[in-house]
Every structure is written in structure tokens, then in C-alpha cells.
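User: Show me sequence and structure for the first protein, then do the same for the second.

Assistant: Starting with the first protein.
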Amino acid sequence: MVIDGLGAYLTPGFIESQTEADHYLKIFTNPNQKDYLGQGVTTIIGGHGGVSLAPLLYGSLRALRKYINPNRTNVNWHSLEELIKELGKLPLGVNFGSFIGHSTVRREITNDAARDLTDAEIKVFKKIIRDAMDQGAFGLSVGLDTVHARRVPQQEIRELLNEVRTDNGLYSVGLRNNQEDLVGAVNETIFLYKQSGVKTIINQFQPLLGFKKQYQLALTLIEKSGDGLFFTISPEPIKILPAYQLLPEWCQVGGLEEMLQLINDVHQQKRLIEKLKVNGELVIKEIPASYHYLSGKTLKEFADNRKLPLARAFLELLNLTKMKLVVALPEIDEELLAPWLFHDRALITAPSQKFLELAEARRWPLEKAVAKLTALPAKVLGLKNRGLIKENYAADLVLIKDKKIQQVLVNGSAGGKVITL
């Protein structure tokens, strides 16, 4: 095969260090991942937010329910090794790797009970981590911002990270709080990082409107914490999250069914509506197929159509979807976002093309911008043969011409595969 590259730039394939293609099962339903390829992305890493496709103790993907109906795929694996074999049967368009989801494992150990783990259960958990790491997992991910992990004791995570450190793995974390107590949440992460010595990635460290001082102080703390603490950030000025996370914290208890019961309790609704703060510009991002016609609509559009106040319209959406709703919020502080994208500790998530456009607007050299999308994430994630154009490296290549992605090769155009640490 001969490719005409005259007048074009050849770069390594871009690395998406925090994908949700696994959370929405798109790795199965849309294995070619053309959206990523169109952005120049050749490698995606999943299993973040405490939720992964493996390891599974009992073959259940119930931890995915806040994103999608997990019954959309046939689960015939338990270990990461078995998952890799299943994915190997698919026509993967990109390379895929995964963290171990803390909630995925913990919920099966405790059968969804909200309690501390026993010493025996901690030992079991460590064995599961050890086996998954031996099979190529990138480390442990914990979603402390989610209902199933928000009250998990710090000591439990510290114990598990000791096992991750033994295998030179990483820690991916969603902060317990990203608003008023952001600084406290970052200090907790820094403490665990220093105690464990495990390289750490803070998920979706998007600066939110109204919390400028907290974010600036938190960033200063990260900068002073040492060389092994990073954060992911997207050039899109929106925040994407499961809709239940917009409920007051006292409503975020148990599973989706329990939360649904709570928001419909007539004795609680008045208090809930008074405390509920929702933005009319909230956009419906992911919704069950039976309500696909609502995808892309704003909360205001939905509320106007139903002739409901915003708060009641939001609760109506939660009821319609049985809490299985993901939304996008335009609540990012763009003044902070722009410079933070170019911070030394920032790992850029999709859309890559938009980051390149912003880099050009800031007159950043192209090679420096490309390194942020390739060499840096490869180094942080420990990908030894990706992120550079170099002899004996994987032929993940992107041809850029006239500021557009013209050609993408994955493993020399042979297609994607499951990659391991």
C-alpha cells in the first residue's frame, strides 16, 4: 500500500486515556469505533469511574445500569483474560485497554450491601486485583463521586492500592466532591498518592462555574504533590454525568430502584423540589431506546412541552427512564478550561481535533500539541511501544493535511486489538 503524504504531517496515533465506550457497550455494538478514528484516536483506555467490563465474579454487568441496559450484550466471561478473548473476536477499529472497576468488583463481593469490607473480603479483592493485573489490567479505578463508592472508607482504598503498587499499576479516581469541598477531595487523593506511591489520574478535572477559587487552589496542590499525579480534561466546555448525580446527596442512596422510590415518596418530594437545582440548558445525552426522540433535547424544551417547572420536569425524566439517564451540562468555566488544557499534568480526552484547533489558536507548535495526545499519555499509562513514531513501535499512525485527519492506520492498518500494561 502506498499513501501519498506530500504536504502532510505524519503523527503517532492519538491516545484517549479515558473512554466510556465500554460503559455504553459501544465497544461491542460499534466495534469499528469510527468516531474515534475520525479524530485520529487509535488507542482507548476504559474501566474508569469504578466500572469495568472485567473482572466479574458472577458474570453480571449491573454496575453499567446507570449508563445503559447491560442486557444488550451476552456476557460469557468473568476474568479480564476471558474478556480479551471475546473482544479478539470482534472487528475492533481501535486498540482497547482497561482498568479494574472498584465498584464492579465490590458490589459483587457485598451483593450491593452498603457496608465496610471484612478483612477476608479485602484479601479476596486483592487476589482479584493481582490476577487482573497479571492479565494486563492498567490498575484500579474508583468512582468516589458515585453513590456506590462515596462512603467507601479511605483505608479500604489504601489497602487495595498497596496491591496495585506491587504490579506497578495506576490509580484512576473520580473525586468525592468537585464543588464546595473540592480542595478536601484533592487533598484526600494526594494523601493516598503519597501513602501508596501509585501513579494517579484524577478523572474529568473540568473547572466548574462558580468554584474558581477552589479549582485554582486544587490545581496548586496537584502541582506541588509530586511527579506522579495527573488529571484528564476535555476541550468540550460541558460536563457529562449520570443524571442521578444531580440529586441532593441525601437522595443518592442504594441502587437505582431505591433512588426512584425515594424521589416518588410524597413525604420527601416537597423537600426534594426545594433543594433540587437543575439548569434548563441541561442536554439529554444518553437515554433508553424507547425514548430516543428525546435525545439531544434540553431540559427546558422537555419542561415546556410537558408544561412543567424545571425541577418537576427533571424528576419526570428520571421516572420515564427509571433513572437510566445521562446528561450534558454547560457548567464549565471556559476561562480556566483553556489554559488548563495545556498544563503539564493534563491528559486530553476527546475531541482531539478540537484540542488541535485550540492549540493552533494559542500558537502552540503542532509537534508540542501532538505530544500531548500521544507521547504524554503513553508515558503516563506505561504503553511501551506506542505514542512515538519509532522503529519496533506499533504502527499507529495519523496523516494530517490541511488541518484535517486524512488517514489513520491502526497497527499498520491491521485493526485494533486489546492492549495490556
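Switching to the second protein now.
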Amino acid sequence: MVFTPDEVAHWVLPRDKVVYSYVVENDDGKVTDMLSFYELNSSILKNPKYDKMNIAYASYCVAGDNEASRLKQLFKDMLILAKQKGFDVFNVTEVL
């Protein structure tokens, strides 16, 4: 799949409270991997303590070397980053 610059801006570039994107660089500064997730919160009804749940959804996760172990590490990194951003739940869905 080839994205236009406008599609990259919409789907991948970071936007606070919308899309969170990160890249991994090697020692030469070359980007080797990319991961992203987006925010889609949910309201909590009839709870005196909480009124919303912060939910992250995996979006793009690309391991440059296509090794299963590298992809697994990227998902672990994504969970850590989402936790640091204050998300309560992290969802991974399969579409297409």
C-alpha cells in the first residue's frame, strides 16, 4: 500500500489526544520500525468515581526486519507508551 502525503498526515503523523506515532532508529539514524495507536475514549455511566475510560487502539506496527520477535517487542513498547500516556485499556483489532 502506498500512501499519499495527505493520507500519511491524517493516519500516521502524531496529533495530541488523537494519534500517537513513534519510530525506532538504528545507530546510523535510519528508521527501522514504526508503531502507532489512536485514542478513542468511552463514557462511563452511573459511576460516582469515574466518568470516562481512556482507550488506545493499535493502528500501525511495522517491524523493518519482519522478525516475529521484533514485532512482539514493538507491541510491548506500544503498551508501555500507552500506559505512560495515561490509557486504561489497549485494544488490538484485526481489520481486513
